[in-house]
């Protein structure tokens, strides 16, 4: 058994400082909020896709998912099996609207389609939900360092917050994405090394691992129970989880903002395809680490932990070779910084674009708004720090983040469905729909025993039904609230946008390339069935 040595500390410090330096370097060229929030719309698709992956593989996943795997095997992969379906839906519907309207935030689109009050409500809900979740994101890496150093986790939270806010203020979305690319590579290497080393320490190797995992039910993930209270049934995962991830990737500014940094609609869609394909194998990898740790400790003895969030960090520090521990913990720390700065950057974007410049300081210079954006980043860093003090009581951190969002995101998805797929719904109806959707989720949570994965489904369905019903009691929206903003105009508007770019010296091939993207949602649906078949195969071993 080893401990965190001087060599590990050196690797850790050098890696973190190097990442911070890269982030700060990008910040030097920021001249406007477009640079700060959208990276000048010049980020390549593969970097955006890997950035999304790095966010999912941050300290939240690195800590939470192995705890899931240790406690319940592959059961919770059901939460993510729906991701290809959600990405297929977003590629075919929501993404083109956001990109072609050239908005900074998703909620700007809602004002164009509905009214100011709907934009303000949805933007406010995002700030609340993402602000709370960011506190969990801050807690996770603080826990890692607390395990390593023995320093009280609350003190570590404060130290982490100071570093994170400073780094985020200097960086912009470009820094977020490009440092995420680095984190993605390092974290995958770290996870792969962890799996390899655990296999070496388990007598019997791969055969013994698979035999034990199968006998103990750790490889079982598909539960066909129709009982709505079964938390991770296939129906909860596919149906409820679809609404969870469609809402998260389609209405959460921290995700949409990445899509808006791409060079074209085609590249926006490509980034989502990449994420849709890789997110499931990534989650399987981290759950597998938890399964392996369960088998490892059958031989090595009880890990003696009080919190599943501590399981993997303790293994990394106590069991892995000198140098490897430093690299993995450095990667977790730096990835957490990337996840945190992306959340803070999006919170700042919504604060400034949807509130400050809209209601408080109109028609100011770009320099003024850029400065305001950095002040907003500091504010949200303090907000997240306060909530992080309570995050340790929420259970496995990855589940805590998803459950916080489930109270809000279903209703938000519902209002975007109303905006894109209907013509009769007006601003009053949309506003009422959001409120009704959230109240429905609260009622279900309090009075019904159903899986939390259904919360987003309930919120979305009620928001759509209530929004449409209320709209029928008042005037239909005017033509300017529909022209180019509903689904029947999407194809034409996309082609018009691409044609305009072609005429402005952009490649004419882009127009033809856009047509090819129509097949991508079909490929993602087929991929979903491949994943399902693979999980059934594992379950029957």
The SSE string, one letter per element, is HHHHHHHHHHHHHHHHHHHHHHHH
Number of helices: 24
Oligomer: single chain
Structural class: mainly alpha
Sheet-strand content, in percent, reads under 5%
Number of beta-strand segments: 0
Large-scale geometry: globular
* Average pLDDT, all residues: 82
Task: Work out the radius of gyration.
Answer: 23 Å
Question: What does the main sheet amount to?
Answer: none
* Amino- and carboxy-terminal Cα gap: 33 Å
What portion of residues is helical? over 70%
Question: Unreliable runs, pLDDT <50, ≥5 residues?
Answer: 489-495, 501-507
Membrane topology: Multi-pass membrane protein
Subcellular location: Cell membrane
Family: Belongs to the sodium:solute symporter (SSF) (TC 2.A.21) family.
Pfam families: SSF (PF00474)
Question: How would you explain this protein's 3D organization?
Answer:
- This is Sodium:solute symporter.
- It catalyses: iodide(out) + 2 Na(+)(out) = iodide(in) + 2 Na(+)(in).
- With 541 residues, the protein is an all-alpha fold.
- Helices cover 75% and strands 0% of the residues.
- It has 24 helices and no strands.
- It has helices at 6-27, 33-38, 45-56, 59-72, 83-92, 94-100, 106-113, 116-149, 153-170, 173-201, 205-215, 234-251, 253-259, 265-300, 311-319, 324-360, 366-388, 397-406, 409-421, 427-447, 455-472, 490-503, 509-516, 520-539.
- Helix 5 packs across helix 12, helix 10 (173-201) packs parallel to helix 14 (265-300) and helix 16 (324-360) packs across helix 17.
- The longest helix is centred in the middle third of the chain and has 37 residues, at 324-360.
């Amino acid at each position: 058994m080893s401990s965190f040595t001087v060599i590990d500390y050196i690797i850790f410090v050098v890696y973190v400082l190097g990442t911070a330096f890269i982030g700060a370097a990008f910040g030097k060229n920021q001249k406007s909020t477009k640079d700060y929030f959208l990276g000048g719309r010049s980020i390549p698709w593969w970097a955006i896709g890997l950035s999304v992956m790095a966010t999912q593989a941050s300290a939240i996943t690195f800590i939470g998912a192995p705890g899931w795997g240790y406690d319940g095997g592959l059961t919770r992969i059901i939460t993510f099996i729906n991701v290809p379906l959600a990405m297929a839906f977003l590629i075919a519907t929501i993404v083109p609207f956001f990109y072609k309207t050239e908005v900074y935030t998703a909620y700007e689109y809602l004002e164009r389609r509905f009214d100011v009050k709907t934009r303000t409500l949805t933007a406010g809900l995002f700030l609340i939900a993402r602000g709370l979740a960011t506190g969990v994101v801050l807690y996770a890496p603080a826990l890692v360092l607390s395990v390593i150093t023995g320093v009280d986790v609350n003190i570590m939270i404060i130290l982490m917050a100071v570093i994170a806010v400073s780094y985020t203020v200097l960086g912009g979305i470009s820094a977020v994405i490009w440092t995420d690319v680095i984190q993605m590579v390092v974290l995958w290497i770290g996870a792969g090394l962890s799996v390899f080393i655990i296999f070496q320490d388990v007598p019997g190797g791969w055969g013994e691992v698979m035999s034990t995992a199968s006998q103990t039910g750790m490889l079982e993930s598909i539960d066909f129970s129709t009982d709505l209270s079964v938390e991770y049934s296939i129906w909860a995962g596919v149906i409820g989880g679809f609404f969870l991830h469609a809402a998260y990737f389609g209405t959460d500014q921290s995700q949409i903002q990445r899509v808006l940094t791409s060079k074209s609609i085609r590249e926006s869609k490509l980034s989502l395809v990449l994420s849709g394909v890789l997110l499931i194998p990534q989650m399987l990898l981290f759950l597998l680490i938890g399964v392996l740790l369960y088998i490892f400790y059958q031989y090595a003895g009880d890990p003696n932990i009080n919190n599943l969030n501590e399981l993997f960090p303790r293994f990394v520090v106590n069991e892995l070779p000198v140098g490897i521990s430093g690299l993995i913990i450095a990667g977790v720390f730096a990835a957490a910084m990337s996840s945190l700065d992306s959340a803070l950057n999006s919170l700042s974007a919504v604060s400034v674009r949807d509130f400050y410049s809209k209601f408080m300081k109109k028609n100011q210079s770009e320099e003024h708004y850029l400065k305001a954006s950095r002040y907003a980043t500091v504010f949200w860093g303090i907000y997240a720090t306060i909530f992080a003090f309570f995050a340790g009581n929420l259970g496995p951190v990855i589940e805590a983040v998803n459950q916080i969002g489930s109270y809000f995101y279903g209703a938000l998805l519902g209002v975007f469905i109303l905006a894109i797929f209907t013509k009769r719904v007006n601003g009053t109806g949309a506003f009422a729909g959001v409120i009704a959707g959230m109240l429905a989720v609260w009622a279900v949570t309090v009075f019904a025993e159903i899986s939390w994965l259904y919360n987003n489904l309930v919120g979305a369905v009620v928001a759509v039904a209530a929004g449409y019903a209320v709209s029928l009691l008042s005037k239909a929206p005017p033509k300017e609230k529909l022209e180019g903003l509903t689904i029947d105009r999407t194809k034409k508007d996309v082609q018009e946008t691409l044609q305009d770019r072609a005429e402005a010296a952009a490649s004419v091939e882009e127009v033809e390339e856009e047509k090819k993207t129509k097949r991508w949602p079909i490929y993602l649906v087929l991929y979903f069935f491949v994943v399902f078949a693979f999980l059934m195969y594992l379950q029957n071993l």
